[in-house]
Amino acid sequence: MDAPGPLPRRIYEERQEGLLRRLQEPSPVPPEWKGLVAVGRSFFDRPGPVAYLTGHFPPFPSAEFSDLGRGIGYSLFLMNREGRRLLIADFHRPDRTAVDDVRISMDVWGPFMEALRELDMDQGALVLLGSDLFPLLGERLLRAQLPDVVLVPGDDWLKSMRRKKSPEEVALLREAARIGEEGLKAALGAIRVGARERDVAAEGHRQALLAGADFVRYLRVHSGPWSEYTSRWPQATDRILTEGDPVNLDIIGAYEGYQFDILRPAVAGKPGPLLQRMREALAAIQEALLALVRPGITVQHLFQKAQEVAEAHGFPHHLSSFLGHGIGLETVEEPLLIRGSREVLQPSMVLCIEPTLHVPGQGAVSVEDEVWLHEDGAQRLTSLPFLP
What's the 3-state SS for 93-150? Predict the structure, then answer.
């Protein structure tokens, strides 16, 4: 099979072999390590560790464990130090998985114990990828059945690989961004005084799916007083837009497993004077950040520039402490662009640049663009105007 997952099989095999070579080099991994285990959760949630290495996306939503199913929505990829590979999943598509040995079960933990014995990984250190996804049940079963196994977190190795996007990944992220913008344009076109938030969200969902999205996780429509919040459940309500309402639109979904995350600050009718000043300041901040971002720039430098522009526009204490994040197989990946970070941006990263201005009691405005960092600078993957 030439193309499991969204990428050619050879890319997944190169990732698997590259990780194996890295673990065989002198490293903090104990010398008695026997193999690695990657954990993945539902395709719309946290598939990254397994999807990145194998092309497999767990198709079911993760569910509470029961006697009849202890692992719905989970998958486990195992590779021993000799390079033998095995995938345990609740379901899979052979044409989309770059692993030949696949075990299907609604209880992934029973087959997991069996596979560890089969692969001679039932004692010594196991490098765990996706340690935040590995449930307590898995640890308890190991302690009870395989007490000589020691789990060693290896997330940093996989994260360092995932941060740098290949040309094939950049092409998928570029198409994902185009699809996300199609959905966002439809939502923007549905904004009018008298419309409900959910009317706006429905138009965006529909168009993104028609444009090629695998799914739209949500299209967050935050209007009026709700614009002050950067997150809220549900994504949209029956609230009716009124004249001058700020309306922040944030669309998140995926194309061939690769995510899009784009945000625009809209308005129902005509904005009031303060809202217009905030919108203009936000656009100036985003323009300055996108002109500055490139390999070698620190996150702290980005914050300094954003703060300078905010102050110049009369909003010295209103800039959020979060300026964005990486994006790829998951919506929010490292690096996180958080105030105080010492991160230095690197070539081949794809980032969401996402400043917010917040005036307590008055509202907030946010904008988000996707940017690919390459050796010569940076290129926007999004193209919508900052102020629709």
Answer: CHHHCCCCCEEECCCCHHHHHHHHHHCCCCCEEEEEECHHHCCHHHHHHHHHHCCCEE
